[in-house]
Write a structure and sequence with these properties.
The complex is a heterodimer of chains A (158) and B (689). Chain A is mainly α and 158 residues long. In chain A, 51% of the residues lie in helices and 0% in strands. Chain A has 2 domains: 2-97, no CATH class; 128-156, no CATH class. Chain A starts with a helix and ends with a helix. Classes of the chains: A mainly alpha (158), B alpha/beta (689). Chains A and B meet through helix 1, helix 3, helix 4, helix 5 and helix 7 of A and helix 1, helix 4, strand 3, helix 5 and helix 9 of B.
């Protein structure tokens, strides 16, 4: 009874995971069954979590996917590789293009800081009005120009 | 030499402004200056300097177009050396930061750009990063599907990466900074794209060539051409940008040379100096002036310049596109965000060590919005001055003077000044129109001389009517920002959605009321002044129908059929845009043929592929005990009450947690055995999205 239910579950899940070919599916089911119904295991009803875990392991093995560390969530990559490998548009290259590192979506991170820049404002000082040398070097021509213009304005506007 | 150019530009602006102020001063001083008149003179001088700057920029651009020369002096290596070893060639990242954008549009845009790059045969040095900050769970999942589609389509040709940040820290600049800090080490340059950016392969390759040939250049900006929208408003903007934009861009490039500006996207950046010198601090104080820097682009360009790197505007490059806001209201919404960002630069513009031209760019950004305030105040002061003069009788005999004091007419001076001001405003448009005749293909692509001329008139009429409405919008924005009200950062609307009468009424009722009141007051108190006000009042008075009318797509299409507002991107569409349009049409047809059932959140729970795709893209995150309990409670809630019982943020929380998603996936399959699916749709549905 347990075996029949398990076979049924595996068949449904493998099909949903993209294994359309019946013969391939049968082989994969057998592989998953071996893991799940190993003599060392307790022969009680298996949860879906266990079934999915077994499918993931089988698919990961099928696509030679390394799962760095002991992250259970990474074994699910077998499901992605299965779909990618059957993609006609990429000619089967899609599965190969997946990054063999911890993060599939991105290359490995290598943190390098971006230091915050100083945008503080120079406080105005009274000495600037009388002493142009106190102005920042880039301001001096502008300072001279403004002073000349102000003198002109005083002469012209009245 | 560049310094001399800037001095010449400064002299031209100052001398023309001084001359105009002198003429107005002479008119106003006929009976001595009042305080009002002094205010009018000061505001006039400021606004005249503003418009005359645009005029001199355009004039230089026009002359260079006639001479057939670009504005910049960037050296260019014509081809990327294919024979050089792979390690010696510079590596380029195309980075697209996105935030709750339409994933289908993003996908189609990227597909078109990457395909164009493949056609240019230089794809092997490029890699694409989709940098998502999306908070909407449906958008997040759709982006993951889009990534998987891109990955499959460009497998073995061009690497496509996807990174999602659960929190939108420091907005777009924080998103880019996260990229630089994590993967900046891999690349020499990055090309920053907006969600609606399209760039041709040729343009991208040319940018890389120029960066390679100019090692002192930190950033090259390509002016983006607005394209693809079909509403009346958007098409008029597209036409204006296509005809007048190149002249203005060439002028900008010519005058500013290596001190050009950065507009946030469609630009190539040298990664190392950007990382070393463009880390943005948090400004002291509260929003809207303090906090994160919103308009980061101008500041980043200024910081690059401060560190001695050159920033150029590649005015001669084509193949850089973006989409404009479809309606006046969407334009105003975007303006609201930009306005806050630019006004925040009041805190940056005086920062120590910035180059004068960087300060000028920041000041021009501020002035872009403050000019509306000054214009409005000028109008009010002019009205008050007219009222004062109407109430003052001319005195023919002054005490102690034997000769009568005859009134002096300054009508000629006033008319001349008005004509000069109007010329300065409209000549840049004429320059743009005239440049069309330099290139027959470009002229025909704009509909020919007559139709382009008619389009120019129609665009001018539209801008005359819409400019006062935008002035009132911007005035409101500035006032609300100065009052301390901050803006929420939302995604820009990028489709052709029209404005409804109700929306137009709600948004523009205030504008209409202001115009009606001003018109009524001037008609009753100053009948002579009223005709002068009509060009300014007409737009806001008709704001509701105008906003509705200009948002209409059928009107835009009708004009297109008649050859009006035609641009080369419509009549002689570049391959990259053609590709994009084809893909967008196909996506639309697919969506109509097979409408999606259920949400992507349900699919991410039930479908083996989507669930695995999502799990594998999730970043590792440790959870506290209380957080774990909260998430478990959410899983239980979903199991008992269904997906609809969860809020958007609760769904996001579950999506961010690998353990919850794994449990939910198993529960969905279990429930499929037990009876009707309660945790998602049929598991096989949409499996190969």
């Amino acid at each position: 009874m347990i075996r029949a239910q398990l076979l049924c579950r595996l068949d449904r899940y493998f099909f949903a995971a993209g294994v359309g070919d019946e013969r391939e599916r049968a082989a994969l089911i057998a592989q998953a069954c071996d893991t799940l119904l190993a003599p060392s295991r307790q022969q009680s009803e298996l949860s879906w979590l266990q079934v999915i875990g077994a499918v993931d392991r089988v698919l990961a093995e099928r696509h030679a996917i390394e799962t760095p560390g002991d992250e259970a969530r990474l074994t699910c990559r077998g499901r992605i590789a299965e779909i990618f490998s059957t993609d006609e548009r990429s000619g089967g290259r899609a599965a190969e293009s997946l990054n063999p590192t911890a993060d599939w979506g991105t290359p490995p991170r290598n943190y390098r800081a971006m230091p915050d820049q100083d945008l503080s404002v120079r406080s105005p000082r009274l000495s600037w009005l009388v002493d142009p040398s106190a102005w920042p070097s880039t301001w001096r021509p502008a300072h001279n120009f403004v002073v000349s213009l102000s003198c002109l304005a005083v002469v012209l506007i009245p | 030499m560049p310094k001399m150019r800037r001095i010449v530009l400064l002299m031209l602006v100052v001398s023309s402004t001084a001359a105009a102020v002198l003429v107005l001063g002479t008119i106003l001083a006929s009976q001595g200056f009042s305080v009002l008149e002094l205010g009018i003179l000061a505001l006039f001088g400021l606004l005249f300097a503003w418009i005359t700057t645009a005029f001199w920029l355009s004039l230089a651009g026009f002359v260079l177009h006639v001479l057939g020369r670009p504005g910049h002096r960037l050296a260019e290596r014509t081809t990327i050396p294919e024979d050089s070893a792979k390690d010696e060639r510079s590596r380029v990242a195309l980075v697209m930061p996105i935030y709750n954008e339409d994933p289908q549009r993003v996908l189609a845009g990227l597909q078109a750009t990457l395909n164009s790059l493949l056609r240019a045969r230089h794809e092997n040095r490029f890699e694409l990063f989709i940098l998502s900050d999306s908070t909407d769970p449906e958008v997040w999942l759709a982006e993951e599907l889009a990534w998987s589609q891109l990955n499959r389509e460009f497998a073995g040709k061009l690497p496509v990466f996807y990174r999602h940040r659960p929190k939108n820290l420091a907005r777009k600049s924080g998103n880019i900074a996260d990229f630089c800090q994590s993967w900046g080490y891999r690349y020499d340059y990055m090309v920053v794209l907006d969600a609606d950016s399209i760039m041709s392969g040729h343009c991208l390759v040319s940018l890389v060539n120029r960066m390679d040939a100019n090692p002192k250049v930190g950033l090259i900006q390509v002016p983006p051409t607005p394209v693809l929208r079909e509403s009346f408003f958007a098409r008029s903007q597209q036409f204006a940008a296509s005809v007048f934009g190149p002249v203005y861009a060439t002028g900008l490039s010519f005058w500013f040379q290596d001190s050009a500006n950065y507009w946030g996207h469609n630009a190539i950046i040298r990664v190392a100096p950007f990382m070393a010198h463009c880390g943005l601090p948090t400004l002291p104080g509260k929003e809207p002036f303090g906090g994160e820097i919103l308009s980061h682009d101008f500041v980043e360009a200024a910081l690059l310049r401060r560190a001695g790197w050159q920033v150029w505007l590649a005015d001669d490059l084509s193949g850089s596109f973006e989409e404009p806001p479809p309606t006046l209201i969407d334009h105003a919404k975007r303006d609201r965000r930009w306005c806050q960002g630019n006004l925040q630069h009041l805190r940056v513009v005086f920062a120590e060590g910035l180059r004068p031209l960087s300060r000028l760019h920041l000041a021009m950004g501020i002035m872009a919005y403050m000019s509306s305030v000054f214009w409005f105040v000028l109008l009010v002061l002019s009205g008050l001055e007219a009222l004062r003069q109407a109430q003052t009788e001319h005195s023919y005999f002054m005490e102690g003077d034997l000769f009568p004091n005859w009134p002096v007419s300054y009508a000629f001076e006033a008319a001349t000044l008005l004509a000069i001001t109007l010329s300065i405003l409209y000549l840049p448009k004429i320059f743009g129109y005239l440049t069309l005749f330099l290139d027959r293909r470009r002229l025909m692509a704009h509909g020919g001389g007559v139709k382009a001329g008619l389009s120019l008139l129609l665009e001018s009429l539209t801008s005359i009517l819409l400019a006062p409405i935008l002035m009132l919008f911007q005035l409101g924005f500035v006032v609300s920002i100065l009052a301390g009200r901050s803006v929420r950062w939302a995604a820009q609307k990028r489709d052709d959605g029209e404005t409804s009468w109700a929306e137009a009424g709600a948004v523009h009722l205030g504008h209409t009321a202001v115009a009606a009141t001003a018109g009524w007051v001037s008609w009753h108190s100053l009948p002579d002044f009223f005709p002068w006000l009509t060009p300014v009042l007409l737009g806001p008075l008709l704001a509701i129908p105008l906003s509705r009318l200009t948002s209409r797509v059928d009107l835009g299409r009708a004009l297109q059929r008649r050859g009006l507002f035609l641009t080369p991107c419509e009549s002689d569409r570049p391959a990259v845009l053609e590709d994009l349009c084809r893909r967008l049409t196909a996506l639309e047809q697919d969506a109509q043929a097979a409408p999606r059932r259920g949400t992507l959140f349900e699919k991410a729970i039930a479908d083996p592929f989507m669930n695995a795709l999502h799990l594998t893209l999730l970043a590792r995150e440790s959870r506290s005990k209380s957080e774990r309990l909260r998430l478990d409670a959410l899983v239980a809630k979903l199991q008992e009450q269904g997906v609809e019982s969860l809020t958007r943020s609760q769904r996001s929380d579950l999506l961010s947690d690998p353990a919850s998603m794994t449990t939910l996936h198993a529960l969905a399959w279990q429930s499929s055995e037990e009876g009707p699916l309660s945790l998602g749709q049929s598991a096989t549905e949409g499996k190969r999205a």
